[in-house]
Design goal:
By secondary structure, the protein is mostly helical. Helix content is about 80%, strand content about 5%. It has eleven helices and two strands. It has a two-stranded antiparallel ribbon. Strand 1 and strand 2 form a beta hairpin. The protein is elongated and about 145 Å long. The two termini are about 50 Å apart.
Length: about 325
């Protein structure tokens, strides 16, 4: 079990297991310490990556798992920059501390957005109400104009129908003159004019106007329904399109207004910063082990071989 754990530690840190196996217990303990620190960092960033992708990127569970794995790989590669530097470098340590500050800031923001999710949701509702009040008048005015146009059309059609209906009531029949021409036996034509009544020809127009008015009333009902549902539709659209930056603004407002939230955020920030700097500090304070000395000796031996090869005619 110990050898499996050491192989796993070598896999994470980039150490050579065959060389480490021949080194002292101090080197083994140092590797185990670095492995534990790396595991803490990996677990932390796996959770942060999964939560961020699921909450803001809206990825399914397998997509969030892939992003979580990518975050683990990135964290390991960043830590290896320190672990595999066997010669202490101040510039590298400063660079790693800067990365630690950035990662701790990102992690604290994401974790606090998850912890303060309920408070953010409450504040988000207030902000959405304000945004709806800004957007609603413009969209509702467009629908109201369309409804007014339909009302005017309906009024015009009803007036036309009333005019025709009144005319039909007054004049249900129209007088017309029909000319009939006859020929006598000698070929002379005689024209007789007959005055007769026919139904008023405007009658069929009533049915067409009724259908037209009914269509406009149905269209008005649809527009009325849209007008009634436009506010919930705007709210749903705004809720659906709230992103990371929107929640970040809300959280910054909460932190500025609530001392408890601000303290919580700083606690998480310094906790993450401490974890991120754990390996940097350990590497800076720990003395060299025989593994590192052996690696330096192997490097020097390799350089001497290269010099000998260059000097060989």
């Amino acid at each position: 079990m110990r050898s499996i754990w050491l192989k796993f530690g070598c896999f994470l840190t980039g150490y050579n297991y065959r060389i480490l196996r021949s080194c002292s217990e101090l080197s083994v303990k140092r590797l185990l310490k670095y492995t534990s620190a790396l595991l803490i960092i990996c677990i932390l960033w796996a959770v942060i990556g999964y939560a961020f992708s699921a909450r803001y990127l809206k990825t399914p569970w397998y997509g969030s798992t892939i992003i979580s794995f990518v975050m683990i790989v990135l964290a390991v590669q960043v830590e290896r920059q320190i672990l595999l530097a066997f010669q202490k470098s101040i510039s590298l340590s400063i660079f790693r501390v800067c990365i630690a500050l950035a990662m701790a800031l990102i992690g604290a923001v994401i974790i606090d957005q998850i912890i303060l999710a309920k408070d953010i949701e409450k504040q988000k509702l207030l902000n959405i109400d304000d945004e709806v009040n800004k957007v609603f008048p413009g969209k509702s005015e467009i629908l109201k104009n369309l409804i007014r146009e339909i009302d005017l059309t309906i009024i015009s059609k009803e007036q036309e129908r009333k005019s025709i209906s009144d005319d039909l009531q007054k004049n249900p029949f129209l007088w017309t003159i029909e000319a009939r021409t006859t020929l006598d036996s000698v070929g002379h034509s005689t024209t007789i004019y007959i005055k007769k009544q026919i139904p008023n020809t405007k009658g069929p127009l009533i049915d067409g106007l009724d259908r037209n008015i009914l269509q406009h009333r149905l269209e008005k009902n649809k527009k009325d329904s849209l007008l009634l549902g436009i506010r919930p539709a705007i709210e749903a659209e705004l809720k659906l399109n709230v992103g990371f930056l929107d929640e970040l603004k809300i959280m910054s407002k909460l932190l500025s207004e609530s001392g408890v939230s601000l303290v919580t955020w700083f606690v998480w920030f310094f906790f993450l910063l401490g974890i991120e700097c754990l390996i940097v500090v350990s590497k800076a304070l720990d003395g060299p082990t025989d593994y590192e000395l052996l690696m330096n000796e192997l490097m020097q031996l390799h350089f001497r071989k290269v010099e000998l090869l260059k000097s060989t005619p």
